[in-house]
Each structure stands twice: as C-alpha cells, then as structure tokens.
Design a protein that fits this description.
This protein has 3 helices and 6 strands; from the N terminus they run E-E-E-E-E-E-H-H-H. It has helices at about 90-105, 110-115, 125-135; strands at about 15-25, 25-35, 40-50, 55-60, 75-80, 85. Strand 3 (about 40-50) and strand 4 (about 55-60) form a beta hairpin. The protein has a 6-stranded antiparallel beta sheet with strand order 1-2-3-4-5-6, covered by helices on one side. It is α+β, with helices and mostly antiparallel strands.
C-alpha cells in the first residue's frame, strides 16, 4: 500500500477484513479493519446502496511513536461515484489549538499536543479472517 505523505514509500499489508450487516439496502460496517506494518485503521459507518452513497469514518492508529503528528480520522461521504474524502476537522483543530496554547506558555511544550504515542496494535488478523470465513466469506484469489 502506498502511503500518502511518504514519497515512494510502501508499507506491508498484514490483512484487511470488511464485514457488513445488510438491512434494507444499507450495509453497516461491523468489522472493517485495515492493518499494515505501521498503522491499523478501523473503519465505521455505512454504505446505502439504494441511494448509492457512503458515510464512513476511518480511524488510523499508528503503531510507532512520533514527535510531531497531525493524524486525524478521515471522513468518506457522498455519492459512490464521487465521494468526498476529508480529514475530520474536530480532532485536528483540537490538537492545533492545544499546541498553540501550550506554545504560548513555553514554546517547547507545543510538542506535547503533537506527540503520537503509537497506541495502535496489530489487528488479530487470523481471528478476523477465521470469523469472516465462518460467516460465509470467500477469500478472493490474488
């Protein structure tokens, strides 16, 4: 997977599992996980096939520490043909405001608001895939 912001850098995909509950043409994510070597992304929300729209949020959790990070959830909303993918403004604004406030007290303190502790852990890929298969999922040949 080619990661944004890293020129010509690729990360190893550990697994991706997408489980949905379907009701009335609306598919709601129950287990939707993308796990790479350095980040696990949990995705929540739904896809409305009748309206042909999606309303999803992706929550990245890096597995490594970073001194300056502005990671924030991504929203994916709109028509399936042309969804809008944007950073979720609230959490990002909160970090920036905290950095400015701490920086006003003492400039080096601004880094505290931008510190990434790396809370992400490897997703239980084997269990997720086993559970998906037990529910009738078919592994697509590559």
């Amino acid at each position: 997977i080619l990661m944004l912001g890293r020129k010509h850098s690729q990360v190893q995909l550990r697994c991706m599992v997408a489980g949905f509950e379907a009701k009335g043409g609306v598919f709601t994510a129950t287990d939707f996980v993308l796990d790479t070597d350095d980040t696990v992304v949990n995705i929540e929300g739904s896809i409305d096939m009748g309206r042909e729209t999606l309303d999803l949020e992706a929550y990245p959790q890096p597995k490594d520490h970073s001194l300056v990070a502005l990671r924030t959830p991504l929203t994916m909303k709109g028509p399936l043909r042309n969804p809008k993918v944007r950073p979720k403004a609230g959490p990002l604004a909160t970090r920036v405001v905290a950095a400015l406030a701490l920086g006003a007290v003492a400039p080096p303190l601004a880094l505290l608001a931008l510190l990434e502790t790396g809370p992400g852990k490897d997703a239980p890929c084997a269990r997720l895939l086993r559970d998906a298969k037990a529910k009738g999922a078919v592994k697509k040949a590559s």
